[in-house]
Amino acid sequence: MLQKFSEIASGFIFTLVIINSVILIFSYALIILPTHAQTNSAVGSGSGAATQSLTLDQSPQYPTPYSTVTITPSSSAFDISGATISVKVNGEQYYSGSGGAGIAITLGGPGSKNNIVVTAVSGGQSYSQSLLIIPENVALVVEPVSSTHPFYDGASLVPSEGHVRVIAIPDLRDSSGNQIDPSSLIYTWSLGDQELTADSGIGASVLDAIAPQMYRDADVSVTVTSQDGSLMAEGNTTITPISPITRIYKEDPLLGPIYDNALGSSYTMPDSEDTFLGVPYYFSSTPALNWTMNGTDSGSTNSLTVRDTGTGVGTAQLNFSANNSSSNETANSTLSVQFGNSNSTGLFGL
Prior knowledge:
Order of helices and strands: EEEEHEEEEEEEEEEEEEEEEEEEEEEEE
Structural class: mainly beta
Number of helices: 1
Number of strands: 28
Radius of gyration: 30 Å
Largest sheet: 7 strands, mixed
Helix content: under 10%
Number of domains: 3
Shape: elongated
């Protein structure tokens, strides 16, 4: 089911567009964004009121493998700052000192069990509470669908209201270090505080969606859980649409388009004829193209050939624009073309 980040929508498209001699590919380009990928569970220990009188706050809630988690003890029954605090991790003494401050604990690798026991002594009374933290991993990959040229080495960016997929890649491991089959895990997707029930479930590791409008970010998160509930990880990312752009390139008669260098604001024709290629980047669907020369329409394809037919020296203003009326996407590039400059053809360049 396709999820629109501002409202529910449907459909998903992979587009291959051929314009003149140049292919515009609307393709998935992987952008690995920073995520929080973690899991934990808490178990209380002790007996009666003594156990309930000690509370442990954990930050972050879902720590990653080898990361640091802060455990802060608190109590409504006694003054925690005047208590003596003892912390053991997997049976080993980790900290001993006064209460009130958070204790930073470095965790083990994926699937490692970190048994944390905190004991507080106040007024001759001992209070104890424990946590079992099992750090796990999940990465989120964002695959936007937007226009580039066929040899583009960069990553496609997210277009406004364009199609995008968010893929969860979990690495949940049991206490023996064995990886849990991702297809057997439960994926719960959320947009902000709204749970996307229809897109969640066992093996639902991919979220098909429509990006938000320009200047409206979308916070997407996923919680990945083993079917017995003992292992859990969380990942989140922000989907940020960008404005489309256009670029103008020189097309060499022998080498083809020179994609390594986009032309800047000015260009001097070395010969009496040159061909220019316009490329629209990061449009959500195929835009309409248009060239103008000194304000006069000069073509609606992706390339334009300019010829110097006179004998004088001059400058022409070349403009390439792309417009997608269905999504109000537009971009343009302007190039000042100087022509008629004499080229040295004599001996030794004189």
